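Minutes, project check-in
Item: structure for the 273-residue chain
Input as provided by the requester:
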Amino acid sequence: MSTCETNICAPIPLWNQTAPFTTPGDADLTEHFRPSDDGIERLTDVTSPTLTYYPASGRGPHPAVMICPGGGYGILAWNHEGKDVAGWLNANGISAFLLKYRCPGRRQAALADAVRAMRLIRSQAGAFNLLADKIGILGFSAGAHLSVRVCTLPEAAVYPPQDETDRTAARPDFAFIIYPAYLSREGWKTDPDLCLSSKTPPTFLVQSQDDTLVDSSLAYYIALKAAGVPTELHLFSSGGHGYGLMRTGRPTDAWATLAIDWFGREVMRSRAW
């Protein structure tokens, strides 16, 4: 268990043993932030994945969300799709877990990290003061693609179990999928590796028409609807891609308010939290 100061806890390592999909080249990488002149923190060369816990204030138990930042599997957009999102969730009475998954170019390792992280959260729900049936996932862009994979792929196929934590179910109870990438195939079909069913969690989807990746949300919405999964899609006239919680003066600024409204109405069902 991590040690907390105010509402931020020390990062929790995901793996007690050697992480699946570790490569010999990992030892040559040093995690760092790329130089930036636009205020976006771009974390890369991640070889030691962690979770950082941001507990909601108040008595609890609280609902919780694991955050998967985007960045094309090359970097992690650490502030506007990560730390800032944790603060926003906390302000709305939701505990947050910020996932630092392996990158660049480590899709299968990232999936193993995300599945392991969800299992860690769920297996320690009591210790984290969480509502055990209200643990969700939120992802942006590539992080949204990763979140969808966690929601839809058979868990047993991801990595060999390492300990008792891996006996815990990883499927989230709900999902916020924000301007996802890499989900669509020709004809608005989803990736055939995704296994949607009625057990796929209720989903809140956001994208804009001027996003070149807009077909990802449309294809995923069609697949969710066909599987009978409760889904809400917000397709904005403009907003582009990669805005996270940044205020841009465009219609997509409304997504966060709409997300909390959906969460209260469809996940908590007007129950106080």
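Outcome recorded: The chain has a mean pLDDT of 94.
No further action items on this chain.
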